[in-house]
Amino acid sequence: METRITKLFNIKYPVILSGMSWISTPKLVAAVCNSGGLGILATGVLNADQTRKAIQEVRSLTKKPFAANVTLYFPGAEKNAAVFIEEKVPVVNYALGKGNWICKEVHAYGGKVIATVTTLKHALAAQRDGADAVIVTGHEAAGHGGDVTSLVLIPSIADNINIPVIAAGGFADGRGLVAALAMGADAISMGTRFMNTVESPVHEVMKKLSIEKDAFSTIRTDKIDGMVARVVNNKGARRLMKKKLNPFSALFRSRQIAKMLGFPWLKLAVGIVFMGFKRAVAMARMAIGFEAFQVGTMDGDNDKGVLPLGQVTGIINDTLTVDSVIKQMMSDANKALKSVAAKISK
Hints:
By secondary structure, the chain is of the alpha/beta class. Helix content is 49%, strand content 13%. An eight-stranded parallel β-barrel has the order 1-2-3-4-5-6-7-8, surrounded by seven helices. A two-stranded antiparallel ribbon has the order 9-10. The longest helix has 24 residues. The chain starts with a helix and ends with a helix.
């Protein structure tokens, strides 16, 4: 199956692994790349040294093109982006910030850039800044999706930009891939489906939970990490939604963020003081969210932890290898195409 995305990134299938913190690790990234897709290494909770080590590990596991992501909203994100550029990562994915400087530096060594967006405004800005493609994240997605469902968001953006669109939010099988292509996308990005695979580092308790839960088992809230995010509806999430915070919590919690990301704490603390009450509370929630996501994904703790989970979990019924997921997807996509053609011809 050839699309603008497969040609742009020199991959076999238009299937991409979302860059999920704690989940999209070198092993999972390499598994997707070796199976014909594009894996995005998540570096949002890594410092610069950890990021460099992870990139080198990916290269030891695959000779295929791969990507790495940076969330520009996070403290110290520019240091990770600098590592990408020094290591000449083939594809760089950025989100929540202006990426014109990233496009310039990455293009200078021949790399490609993907911007993650949830609105047409940001998609147009990414195109102007030089992005080679955009990941368009719909309302159904795990984590930080948009306010509009993929069924509407994808074609509304694809119709108004010239660069390729990668559809994210609500995709887990061949039917979804065909639907995304029909809506104007050139590929799909999957988080929840790849989260529940053999190579995924997520705790087995959470993989089993993903199979057990249906499409109505998630909640969307800004009370976990300070930004609106979709997560599993469990005790841990409900507990955090009730938690009341204040700016003093932000100062205390900022030490955790600074230590994790290798960012000067004093600089972060001063920034929190001057950013105002709302942003300060959001920073406190970010630290709490980091901890909750790690406990949920790695420890499988549903009482204290939280698992980002997309609504598409309702159609995931097994834990397969990455290679099996992609092969089954392509087979099912061909069947879906034939089924649609048969219905149209009647």
